[in-house]
Fold this protein.
Amino acid sequence: MQLTADAIVALRRKVWWRILPPSVLLYLTAYLDRANVGFAKLRMANDLKFSEEVFGLGIGIFFIGYLLLEIPGAILVERWSARKWFARILITWGFISAATAFVRTPMEFYAARFLLGVAEAGFFPGIIVYFTHWFPMKERGRAMSGLIVAVPFSLALGAPISALLLEVKWLGLAGWKWMFILEGLPAVILGIATLLYMTDRPRHAKWLTADERDYLEGALAAEAKAKEAVRKVSIGQALRLPTVWLLSLGIFATNTGGYALGFWLPTTVKSLSGGSDQFSLLFSGLYYLCGLVGVLYSGYSSDKTGDRKWHCVAGQVGAGCFLLLSAASGNSFAFAMTSLCFTGLVSYSWPPPFWALPTLTLTASAAAASIGFINIFANLAGYLGNHIIGWMRHHGATDSTCLFFLAGCYLLGGLIVSFVRVTRKPVPTS
């Protein structure tokens, strides 16, 4: 039975409210458990006598573990069950994140971070695959923008919460230990809830009518059939395309600065301000709050104008320029923090338009073969950037020197992406 236009609109609204908010909540929890080590560092490093280099390697090694199961995890979502796979991910990473509270040596810290990466691996690409089970192509971009909002929101929310938890001393445990425990265990609860609430595919959705299930399954099947008619491109063929390498190297350079800035921001703010841990975390939260505004505006503006490339480049170059200003602030914390807030505003604005570029600049089959390869570079940058900043700080580099390095990463990334040729210009939306 064919649905009426009004029924189709109602169906889309029903799917959006059932699928997107829980997915955003899960990703919010994932990113907070990944990044809260940067908050904990303000007390954890002194208690455990960890050097800056130890912390840099420990933060970065997460991404090595993450790479191991990233592709297999996405395949399991497609061929097995998103509901069961996400539940497994949430429960294991929740316990591992909480267990980080009890590390005592650098090797235990490295092991906890590596296992956290292994546990979380496959979640983000799995969510992308999961969305293909529910959202037609024309709605998928907006769904991804909604998901990415969870990154700055989780950190903006997590910073003040972590500031409060650092002061807790229940049962003789330091506040940073309780921070890991209390921010990790919700993932376990959400994992159990995922088994009960999440639906794998429309045909399993008891909350849809039979006609709605048939319509949605039919629409998605038609898209899948159309994709199968397109000539397949192997990863080897895709790697011979200059655009693939420009996008890979562009995100590698940008994320080398971006991931390191996100993890080391509380330490940098504390050093620049000379304030307390709570003061530093609250001001770090302000940076992430600006990032939330930036990602929302970028999604709206790039959709309205149809431009992706220059929105991406503007975010990368803008972040680099504002970081240069913060590095050149001298002894003025007010000027440095203002520059960092503007950095936050633009530094989260480039990912949504960036991930649209493969589909705009490559054929559908080449884009599908290359996105996984591009994402490998994105995650390797997370390891490299954090390791480098830890090494630099351990060897006496000043905050300004580190900020200059991070600015250079953003500027280089923007320069590389500026050479990408967009041969198919989309029609602006009204």
Residues 425-430 have pLDDT under 50 and may be disordered. The chain has two domains: 1-225, 230-430.
